[in-house]
Design brief:
Blueprint: H1 2-22, E1 23-28, H2 32-45, E2 49-55, H3 56-61, E3 70-76, H4 78-87, E4 97-103, E5 109-114, H5 116-122, H6 129-147
Antiparallel strand pairs: 1-5, 2-3, 3-4, 4-5
Length: about 150
């Protein structure tokens, strides 16, 4: 029993560290909605498809609960998604790409997305390095535009 009490906190610490390694999160000076509006506009300008926005905080309000502002934007490029899923269809669980914006307990807004390298590794896709670099560069650019101050 003591061993379990010692191991459980370590497990959660490792899980949190892995989540942070696999995700890129950056501060935004804007509200959740404005951050995602800016990301969406930049994505559209790059020719990406916007599939939907899920407003988690508004959805939970519908069941009488409350969370801080939190919204998810689902977007992508179907041609790139097809190349990736052509290598391993399980990648479809991570595609299309997503970005989430949320307000933390200090009222700081964050924007985060899964690193493309992590998605490729998770689905054992190793022969699309050039595409992975392009995706990572695009995401970094879109996020930078979303949080840039004028």
């Amino acid at each position: 029993m003591r061993f379990l009490l010692f191991i459980l906190p370590l497990f959660f610490a490792v899980s949190t560290a892995n989540a942070q390694e696999n995700m890129m999160a950056i501060k935004s000076p804007y509200s959740v909605d404005k951050t995602l509006d800016r990301f969406e506009a930049a994505a559209k300008a790059k020719g990406l498809t916007i599939f939907t926005r899920i407003e988690h905080s508004k959805n939970v309000a519908g069941v009488g609960m409350e969370i801080r502002p939190t919204s998810l934007l689902i977007f992508g490029n179907p041609k790139i998604g097809a190349k990736i899923m052509g290598k391993n269809q399980t990648a479809g669980i991570d595609l299309p790409m997503k970005t989430i914006a949320w307000e933390d307990e200090n009222k700081q807004v964050w924007l985060a997305y899964n690193r493309p390298y992590t998605i490729m590794q998770r689905h054992h896709i190793s022969d699309l390095q050039e595409l992975t670099v392009k995706m990572a560069t695009t995401l970094k650019t879109l996020a930078a535009i979303a949080v840039a101050t004028p």
